[in-house]
């Protein structure tokens, strides 16, 4: 059944009880949400040149590890198999002047059931409204960090009722939260920064969710954070997270409101009579976890209401870390210069934390490299905690270590940035972060893992071929 959309000068009403069949974007009618700010230059679209193949929807069992399938709405129709590779950099250029509704429609059309809207419980409810207006089935997920305001939980419920959907909540790992809180207390982020807590409560659950998708939709806007979001394109190959097929480049990120001003989002929400989070009427603009979000005064930038005790340019929680530009070239190459490494050391806590992993000191790895007759083979990752590619492989590497615990195969890490970098480049074949080396049982020469696919299965295949 198709819904009817009628508008008048004073009100807008939508009626209908279920989604219509596919509607072409050219047929879509929606009130304009005001002026769409055009980007100043196309060169600001910061996309990977890597091409991404969009494959047919399939019933990949891996999805069971991430978002609960189809919990949000209605099953999407099967997509026709598309064999051609898609150039998302080009698509971003083509869609740069498109309306959010057109962009949303294109995203849902392309990815069907393999895409979901990331909903924070704030004004990004506009994304859900746009998705509904396309008439296509859509999915919504949200990260329940356990630290949200009561108003946000009530708002989630209201949104579910309003749209007749179930939000697919993602929760943090209970053991990780327990370890963090028991060792550092409930408010450690005020002392040593929000990254560690955000990693446990947000980034890892997000990573799990995205591993079940081929694309996601965010409410990022260029005007939200001048330091980190000023170059957000409307669509891009996700520079940080991995999708269903694994590996960097396997996930597409859509930002339909990238070019829209905050005030125009609000005009749209009012025009469509969309429910909003009660915190907005108390002065909150940006909404996140209760301890890390506060109202802002008129004239204050919305990001001043988040992690206000930290530096203004380091306010991404890790969900959109690809936006961070600290020494971008160095980071992309995986080898930071001294300044970048120093920054990373200061703001990033360590990664690959597991009792199944051996942490090698400089002496430790020197001894390992010298041994000609090792008792057991070793796999060692040379890493830097601030490197986004290292962060992206963290879960799979830890899982690998836990899987191989007690098997006679040692899994280890060696932090190779800063003053260790020259040594690692000279002696350990370090070219970029992460570098993974296999030290065989009976040979002194380590073998370098050449692939950029760093999931557990690929690493296991590498190990099994050599040990
Ligand atoms: Fe933790 Fe604050 Fe990050 Fe929420 S926003 S996950 S409470 S540091």
Description:
This protein has 467 residues and is α/β, with parallel strands linked by helices. The chain contains 15 helices and 15 strands. The protein has helices at 88-94, 100-111, 125-134, 150-163, 174-184, 189-192, 195-210, 262-271, 328-333, 338-347, 362-370, 388-392, 394-404, 421-427, 456-466; strands at residues 4-7, 12-15, 52-53, 85-86, 115-118, 140-143, 168-170, 215-217, 235-237, 252-254, 358-359, 378-383, 410-415, 435-439, 447-448. β1 (4-7) and β2 form a beta hairpin. The longest helix has 16 residues, at 195-210. The N and C termini lie far apart (60 Å). Residues 1-66, 68-83, 312-316 and 324-347 have low confidence and may be disordered. The structure holds iron/sulfur cluster. Iron/sulfur cluster binds at residues 145, 147, 189, 194, 197-198, 201-202, 288-289, 291-292, 317.
């Amino acid at each position: 059944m198709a819904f009817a959309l009628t508008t008048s000068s004073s009100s807008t009403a939508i009626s209908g009880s279920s989604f219509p069949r596919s509607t072409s974007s050219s047929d879509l009618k929606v009130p304009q949400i005001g002026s769409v700010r055009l980007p100043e230059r196309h060169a600001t679209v910061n996309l990977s040149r890597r091409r991404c193949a969009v494959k047919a929807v399939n019933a990949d069992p891996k999805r069971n590890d991430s978002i609960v399938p189809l919990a949000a709405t209605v099953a999407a129709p099967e997509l026709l198999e598309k064999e051609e590779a898609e150039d998302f950099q080009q698509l971003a250029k083509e869609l740069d002047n498109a309306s959010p509704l057109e962009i949303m429609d294109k995203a849902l059309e392309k990815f069907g059931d393999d895409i979901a809207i990331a909903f924070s419980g704030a004004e990004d409810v506009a994304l859900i409204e746009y998705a509904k207006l396309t008439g296509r089935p859509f999915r919504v997920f949200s990260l329940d960090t356990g630290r949200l305001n009561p108003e946000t939980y009530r708002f989630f419920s209201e949104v579910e009722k309003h749209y007749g959907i179930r939000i697919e909540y993602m929760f943090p790992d209970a053991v990780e939260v327990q370890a963090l809180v028991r060792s550092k207390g409930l408010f450690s982020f005020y002392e040593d920064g929000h990254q560690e807590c955000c990693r446990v409560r947000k980034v890892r659950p997000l990573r799990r969710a995205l591993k079940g998708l081929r694309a996601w939709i965010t409410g990022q806007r260029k005007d939200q954070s001048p330091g980190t979001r000023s170059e957000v394109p409307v669509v891009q190959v996700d520079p940080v997270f991995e999708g269903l097929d694994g590996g960097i480049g396997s996930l597409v990120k859509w930002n339909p409101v990238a070019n829209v001003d905050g005030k125009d989002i609000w005009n749209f929400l009012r025009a469509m009579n969309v429910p909003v989070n009660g915190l907005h009427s108390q002065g909150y603009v940006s909404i996140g976890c209760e301890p890390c979000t506060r109202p802002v005064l008129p004239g204050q930038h919305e990001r001043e209401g988040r992690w206000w005790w930290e530096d203004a340019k380091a306010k991404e929680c890790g969900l959109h870390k690809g936006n961070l530009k600290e020494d971008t070239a160095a980071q992309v190459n995986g080898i930071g210069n001294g300044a970048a490494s120093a920054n990373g050391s200061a703001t990033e806590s360590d990664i690959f934390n597991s009792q199944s992993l051996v942490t090698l000191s400089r002496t430790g790895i020197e001894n390992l490299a010298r041994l000609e007759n090792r008792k057991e083979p070793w796999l060692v990752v040379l890493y830097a905690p601030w490197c986004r590619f290292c962060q992206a492989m963290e879960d799979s590497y830890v899982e690998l270590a836990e899987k191989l615990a007690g098997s006679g195969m040692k899994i280890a890490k060696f932090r190779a940035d800063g003053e260790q970098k020259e040594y690692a480049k000279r002696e350990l074949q370090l070219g970029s972060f992460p570098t993974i080396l296999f030290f065989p049982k009976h040979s002194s020469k380590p073998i370098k893992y050449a692939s950029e696919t760093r999931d557990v299965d690929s690493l296991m295949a590498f190990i099994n071929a050599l040990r």
